[in-house]
Structure formats: C-alpha cells, structure tokens
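Tokens for Nramp family divalent metal transporter. Go.
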Amino acid sequence: MASPGPQTDFLEPPTGARRIRSIGPGLLAAATGVGAGDLVATMVAGASFGTVLLWAAVVGTLVKLALGEAVGRWHLGSGATMLDGWRRLGYWATGFFGVYIVVWGFVYGATAMSAVGLPLNALFGGLPVGGWAAIAGVVGLALVWVQRYHAFEKFMTVLVLIKFATVVFVAILVGPDLPALANGLVPRLPEGSTVYVLGLIGGVGGTITMAAYGYWLFAKGWKGPKWLSMMRLDNATGYIMTGIFVVSMLVVGSTILLGENLTESDSGLLTLADRLGALYGEPVRILFLVGFLSVTFTSLLGVWNGVSLLFTDWVRAIRLPHGAKAAIGPDVENAVVAGEERTAAGGAGSTAAGDTAAAGDERGGGPGRPGAYEAARAERSLPFRGYLLWLTFPPMALLLIGRPFALTLVYGVLGSFFMPFLAVTLLLLLNTSMVAREARSRWLSNAVLGISSVLFAVLLVTDVYSRLT
C-alpha cells in the first residue's frame, strides 16, 4: 500500500486579496500560447471582415479557458502530471507526444526566435533579423537556465502586463466602433470567412504550451483538490486577459487595415506598425513594436521553460509502466510539488527524470518514490537543460537555410493532431477514478470538451488537407 502523502498543511490556498496576488501560472500559460502568428491571424481576420468575426474570438477564448481548466483539474485532482495520464492510456499516447515534442521543438525554436528578431530589428536595426533572432534565443536560454519558477513568474508577469497595456491602448487610440463591436457578437459566417473563424476559435492561443499549465501549478506548490477554486480564478484571469488582448488586435486590424490584402506572415505586424506611425506619430509606432516584442518574447520564454518541463517529464514517464500497470490516482503520490518534503522512500539520489519503478508495483513508497515527478528538481535536471539547448541551437540552422518542405509538412501535420489529442485525452481521463471525485468532469465540462474535440478534429482535417493539396 502507498505510504501517506507528504505533509502540505502549510501550503494552503490563499483567501481574500491574497488570491489576487497569487495569480501567476494562468498568466504564463495564456500568454505563452499567444505568439506573433496569433496576432497576425487576428489582424488579418479584422482587415478582411472587420469586427464581424468578434464572436469567434470570444468563443475561442472560452474554449481555451475550458481546456486550461481541464488541464489544471487533472493535475490537482489526480496528483499526477499530464504525462502520467497519457502513459495510463498507453504507449500510443506517450509515443506520439515524444515524436511530436522533438520535431516541434526543432521547428518552433526557429519560429520563436525569428518572431522576436523582427521587432528588435525594427526598433534597433544594426543586425539582420536572423542575428537578432539568434541573440534572442541565447538570452532566453540564459534566463530560463538560471531562474527558478518564482523569479520566472514575476519576470513573465511584467512582460504580460506590458504587452496587454500596449495593445489595449492602441485599440482605444484608434477609436473602436462600439455599435459594430456589439454587432460582432452575433454569430455570422460571411462568404469566405470559414477558415478565419476556425482559426480564431481553434488556433489562437491553442498550442502544446496548454499542457504545461499543470507543471507550473506544481512548481508554484499547488496540489490537491483544495486548490481547484484558486486554479479556476488563476486560469480565468489569464484567458480573460487573452480574450481582451485578441479583441483589441481585431479592433486595430479592422480599423486601420480594413480591406487591405495583407501577408499572413509575422512581417505583416511591421506593416501595421508603420501604418500606426504614419497616422499617430513615431511614439505610437514604437509603443506598438514594444508590445510586439513583449508578445514574442513572452511566448519564447514560456516555451523555453514550459515545454522543457514537458520533455523532462516525458523522459521520466516513458520508462515507467504504461496502461493498466500504471498506478495513478488521488491515493498515489505521483508528483512532489515545490514546498513538499520527500519521504525517505525515494532516496537521496532520485532525479526529476525519475528512475524505473520496481517491477510489479509502481506505487513504491509514496512521495519521493522512484518514478515520482519532482517539481523542485525539474528545472535543474539534465533533460530540462538538454531540451533547452535543443530549442536554441539546432534551430539556428533554419534561420540560415529556411525550413525544408518535408520538415515543415511533418511539423504542421503533427501540430494539427495535438489539440484534438489533448481535448480527447482530457475527456477520457477526467471521467475516471484516477481523479478525486470533486475534480471529475460533470455534464458541462464534458459537453465543452466534447464540442472542442469535434472542433479541433475539423481543424485537423482542414489543415492537413490544405497542406497536402
């Protein structure tokens, strides 16, 4: 039988005003998921259809909020990580994720660095975009390498507030048409808008980084069903801010660029910056570029930290029992969060990547047992730092030679599979006894996850079809 859980009475959820001060992981997850590509997609939708598709941006925000809440609920309700849940489903789940995270990291590393290089080049010049991109990658590597979660959260929160304030200010400055905004809340599908609607609902803010949310909860010391209320406030704050941010970008695109045939690349944001400068002066152009830089750099830093945590846990989980042999549930301490004490059962030599559990009984000796995920050690582990290097240096080759078509195709197809994979697996896991009763899905959560699964499946088919034809 598993030994009693760790003593965490001192890790009690905050009350009153302290709840607001404790918000953090949700801001990181929401901010990391919105990068330059999402800004461009929203801007192009606004330029093409005005604010008619505002309803799609709102629905998209609600879908991501529900998915983020489900990820957090799994971690808090099961005491296990997302990778633990996937290994319970079988090697097909962890195998798919292992291939995906390696390919994704290589291609996205170049994408993220290039996105940061664009505003740096526009603001400071001196170096080509590729040069600034390489510098951004190395700076991100250094910051994530030396910082621990609490310092990382504070730094990211400042960047999130800068990007939020700058884009919302620009949206107010351009003078949104309030009646048109209200009219945009009525669902409509103008001719040729289906692809944009699907992108706004399913694409903006929806990436692999959504799965990192639970790891940031553990890094902050949140664990157990008693944290569900705090997690929901935290997650809702992050995605409500993201929703306001996306709507602001839609307003800017529809007001400044309506009717223009824009490029759907990150450089389209430079076109918008130049137009803002021509209309409102150089200070506004610079302000928007600072916001653009904050968007791209928060996305880069969030990926460098969050996805490296996911890879670290994959290294641990892939060596543990899968399927019915995986011992997971609220009565089994699968993870040790920041602030918890490990029991002697784990041994002093246990690492974040974990050791193979004893044959036949993965439950071991409770928290700190061989195979347990240890949040406090993860950021210092070899897999974490190895993946950080993988995100930073090999992708620099793509900055020079561009993306080979075959690699881009594999990256795109695997990426299209991830969001339906996440939604469907959460739907399966959150209706089992692996989750504490108060954290299990009820009819509303099941309905939202079910609808999201169908939506992401439609997106998968349309995206794969567009790539192959």
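The longest strand covers residues 335-336.
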